[in-house]
Amino acid sequence: MRSPLVALPKTELHIHIEGSLEPEMMVALAQRNGIALPYDSVEAVRAAYQFENLQSFLDLYYAGAQVLQSEQDFYDLTWAYLQKCALQGVRHTEIFFDPQTHTDRGIAFEVVHSGITQALHDAKGELGVSSALILCFLRHLSAEAAMATLEQALPYRDSIIAVGLDSSELGHPPSKFQAVFDRARAEGFLTVAHAGEEGPPEYIWEALRLLQVSRIDHGVRSLEDPALVEYLVEHQIPLTVCPLSNIKLCVFDTMAQHNLKQLLELGLCVTINSDDPAYFGGYLAENFEAVESALGLLPEQLVQLAKNSFKASFLSPAEQQPYLQELTAYAASLA
Length: 335
Ligand code: HPA
Ligand code: ZN
Hints:
Elements: E1 10-16, H1 23-32, H2 42-47, H3 54-64, H4 71-87, E2 90-97, H5 99-103, H6 109-126, E3 130-138, H7 143-153, E4 162-166, H8 178-186, E5 190-195, H9 201-209, E6 215-218, H10 226-235, E7 239-241, H11 243-248, H12 260-265, E8 270-272, H13 277-280, H14 284-295, H15 299-311, H16 317-334
Parallel strand pairs: 1-2, 2-3, 3-4, 4-5, 5-6, 6-7, 7-8
Helix pairs in contact: 4-6, 7-8, 15-16
Bound molecules: hypoxanthine and zinc ion.
Zinc ion binds at residues 14, 16, 166, 194, 217, 275.
């Protein structure tokens, strides 16, 4: 029997839509688009998912994304993820997409954006899952390329709530993108950034001070800097922690060693997320289940994590209210 956590009302705030590409869909889209993959079966794709660090994952993740070509492909990818959300109590999701992964190989921004946003629109009506979209810049590419991507996104700004920063963290500090984020905020976008996944606490400070982010994506290395922990607690800056990702990418050796429980008990606004569920072995419910068993989290701590997910979202307090009420009622029914 599955844990009651599967049905816990929650939001997801750290999911790369390209990272929800399951091996089955990768193989099917390769066939549909006449693309040769370096694998001869779905099992071979899955067997290749053994990573030593972030970069070894990113190499496969960018290679896999090449099968995405048409608007329909982006629709199908996004729709499959949203169906998972509906089955796992995810009421609202704030999705990252990486336009440069596609525009750099000749796929138009419009194609990517249209496929994703049509699926998001349909999910609201058909699945009852609401959403927001966050454009991530690839930090291993130049600040000039990020600025050009921001300019491409301006005609679509009503459908993109925020910009973020992902890809290879080490050697690409947030400061590299200060001008791009200044411009993005001036154009009305909110900001988030991956920081403190593999990079040092200094990168988290930079994301806060120079990029003025609303949330830190990952942020698990914040524990190394007590002044930073104090700041994050005082300002209740959310961390979008991704437990299964952190184990798959060797940020922690085992789930029992993950610092999520410590972060929570220090009073940080911690949330649980799946990052790249097709690559890391689970969607949001599987991440909740994994930390529940490995860290011995109490029921009230799991409910707190779900509550944090709504509070850390870009939903307005009025929009959060019915979800928080539903969560309270669900928690009472479990007790
Ligand atoms: N970190 C950085 N970049 C990424 C990740 C991640 O966990 N997932 C997809 N792109
Ligand atoms: Zn991520």
